[in-house]
Amino acid sequence: MNSVQMTLYNILLTIFFLTFNSCEGQNNSQTRQGETVEIGIMVPDLDKTIWAIYQDKSSNYWFGSKENGIFFYNGQQIKQMTVKDGLVSNAIRGFQEDAAGNIFIETERGVSKFDGRTFKTLQVAPPGYFTNEWVLNPDDLWFRMGAGSNGPYRFDGKYLHFLKLPQSPQEAEFKSKNKNTSVRPYGLYTIYKDRKGIMWFGTASLGICRFDGKTLSWHYEEQLQTTPEGGDFGTRAIFEDKEGEFWINNTRFRYNLKPDSSININFQKEDGIGYLDERNKKEFPFFLSITEDKEGNLWMATYDNGVWKYNGKELIHYPVRDGATDVLLFTIFKDNKGVLWLGSHNAGVYKFNGESFEKMFEK
User: Fold this and answer.
1) Residue-range definition of the domain harbouring residue 10
2) Contacts of 229 by beta carbon, 8 Å cutoff, 6+ apart
3) Quick check: 300 and 308 in contact, CB under 8 A?
4) Which of 94, 98, 123, 294 has the lowest CB atom count within 10 Å?
5) What's 180's DSSP letter?
6) Residues 285 and 250 sit within 8 Å (Cβ to Cβ)
7) Confidence band, pLDDT 50/70/90 cuts, at residue 2
8) Rounded-to-integer distance, Cα 38 and Cα 217, Å
9) Which domain of life is it from (predicted)?
10) Residue range 261-302, pLDDT digits in tens
11) Closest CA to 192 of 257, 131, 279
């Protein structure tokens, strides 16, 4: 083979390997926007009860319903996926994605992993396999698996490890006031990872437990748990803003964390922000979900009072209605382009158009 033939051979060989690797990479990756998954059935609309929203790295949207499975939207079509397709449960509570593009679906009965083609149920570590091992690895995923467990599940890439929360300083007082033994005060309402990778766990009745990799610490305040109407709100939302300060459940205070290794989280409280209601009384909205836009504004979704935006100076109210009916909100999500989405209990999904939240996917 002469030099010209050798050069041509090398060029053709390079093209072959580039083409092969490109095709192989596409086969192993998540579906791209505009493509669809092979499983599930085509549907014209979403469920009315959407409790979780996520957009993956390939720009596909995942909507999790209260009890009717997943609604997958690729920008063109909607597909519904349920236990008939391999999901462990139809009660969807959250989505996460790992570095390889696998989607993890948290449900009331377990966690399903979707690799682009099929669902696989994650296995809980067998008894005695690193039982109750509290460690903090950057690639681990954390799940609630329902609000009734007395601690989180940590996924290390192989097994789910159940980690029991330590005793709260508030437990004795809670038990003295609540004789109903069926109530699970340690049940998790939310799990939050802050900018440093530290884990925060919001419980049903005992406030917050925080794990920094070494120490498990607690924080409880009556004003964070009890609404003005007297109901027990639980700890449903924790968020670290661009200035590194934390917002928990409502806007009465924001919290500046101080390093400490004691059993109690060491916070410095600063005044938050309120609004005047129709009686000219100052109120502080309780929110179930919170996010931050590209400009650093905070957006807080309440259950029955729309969305509140905090721009650093004031609270701005965005009512959300389905005709004449107030929409009961559950979650707010910022997608890959910074667009805000809302999931609700009674009216499906809403999207922010720059001025208001408009209903999406109407038939």
Assistant:
1) 1-30
2) none
3) yes
4) 294
5) -
6) yes
7) very low
8) 45
9) Bacteria
10) 678 899 999 999 999 988 899 999 999 999 999 999 999 999
11) 257
SS3 205: coil
Same domain as 41, residue 26: no
Question: 233 in the Ramachandran plot: left (φ > 0), alpha (ψ -120 to 50) or beta?
Answer: alpha
Tell me the three state secondary structure of residue 85. Answer: helix
Does position 352 have pLDDT exceeding 50, yes or no?
yes
Average pLDDT over residues 88-114: 96
**If you average pLDDT over every residue of the chain, what do you get?**
89
Per the CB < 8 A criterion, the answer to whether 226 and 177 are in contact is no
- How many angstroms separate the CA atoms of 48 and 108, rounded? 19
17 and 43 co-located in one domain = no
CA 194 to chain centre: 13
Q: In the predicted model, what is the mean pLDDT of residues 139-150?
A: 88
Alpha carbon separation from 237 to 52, 203, 225, 268, 299 (Å, rounded): 14, 10, 11, 19, 12
Phi, psi dihedral angles at 107 (to 5 degrees): -130, 180
Q: Residue 182's pLDDT is what? A: 75
Q: Are residues 22 and 143 in the same domain?
A: no
What is the per-residue pLDDT for 263?
A: 81
Which two structure tokens, joined as six digits, stand for 90?
């139809």
Q: Look at residue 17 and tell me whether its pLDDT is greater than 70.
A: no
48 and 180, same domain (yes or no)? yes
pLDDT tens-digit readout, 167-189: 999 999 999 988 777 778 999 99
Q: What is the mean pLDDT of residues 105-131?
A: 91
- Looking at residue 11, what is its pLDDT? 40
Asked if residue 322 lies in contact with residue 345, where contact means CB atoms within 8 angstroms, the answer is no
Q: Are strands 41-43 and 50-55 parallel, antiparallel or unpaired?
A: unpaired
The string over 68-105, giving b where at least 16 C-beta atoms fall within 10 Å of a residue's C-beta and e elsewhere, is: bbbbbbbeeebbbbbeebebbbbbbbbbbbeeebbbbb
Residues 73 and 6 in one domain: no
Tokens 């979403």 identify what position?
46
Q: Is 171 exposed, middle or buried (0-12, 13-18, 19+ CB in 10 A)?
A: middle
C-alpha to C-alpha distance for 227 and 233, rounded to whole angstroms: 6
The label of the residue with tokens 């890439």 reads 157
Helices H / strands E in the chain, number of each:
3, 32
Number of domains forming the structure of the chain: 2
